[in-house]
Amino acid sequence: MLMDGRPDPLERKAGETPFPFARMARKRDALDRLDLRFRWGRYGIRVLHCHLAAFAPGHVISFHKHSEFEFHFIPKGKGTVTFADGAAYELHEGLFYLTGPDVVHEQRSDDAEPMYELCLHCEIVPLETGSGTEWGDSLEVREADECIRLLQTMPPAPTLDRYQAMSAFLDAYRAWEEQPVGFYTTVKQTMIQILLRAARVHASPEDAGNIPERDMKDHRFRLAIQYIEDNAARPITLEEVAERVQVSPRQLQRIFQSEGRTTFRDWVEHVRLQRISSDLLQTERPIEEIALEHGFVNPNYLYPVFKHKFGMTPSAYRRLHGVR
Length: 324
Hints:
By secondary structure, this protein is an alpha+beta fold. It contains ten helices and ten strands.
């Protein structure tokens, strides 16, 4: 049904091209009923409405305003929007416009055909800045700040939905239908995508954000030592680890020398000996068995390596710490 009670022409007839957003008409207030509120950067986002609206031909929503942000996307039909200063714009499929806080506007659908609108009406409230700076928090804060700044300065004139923000409405509705694991996070991300894709239309190239680049030598060193930690219990080679971190064996050896001040072989032995020394003190298992378990294919090789590092044999190490 349309807003005036007449049958909804979205009820597709046989042979008619499907309208992808028609499924949102099955339960128009599905997303409106959800208490969606979340933090994004320095802002609290509270979703007041998120739905597909259908307006009968000639339907008028007289001049009004909101104290929040209201995004209007036109997926089908045509009409006009008029602002308090008299500026009027034609609306048609593929356009969107934002009526920010206190923007007075009037909407009218075409006299001959209905108009459909995907509406996101949300409150955006500044919050106190959190103290966390790790795991990308500072990047999210910066991007949220830039997005909200663009939305606050966006002209109300309709423009093309060049970055497919409309598809995020359908993603949110499908999530409501399917109720997947992580439903709340999925819907939250779709709301943020609508904000970002709308803001991106009016962004300049200078507004583009950049993720800080890694120190690749340090990054590869960390990947390599983590791989060694995970696989030290079996025989591993310089060539194997180099392949995993996508460098040549010679380059990986240089990375260990510059970042770890040691060689690949010495690092592997260090990891293994730390674990062996722990097992020697915490268990009464035979030394040969412990050596095999921690990557020494020949248990006899453990004795000179262990003595070189600790200044004594594994047996003496046990006796020194009171393990018989």
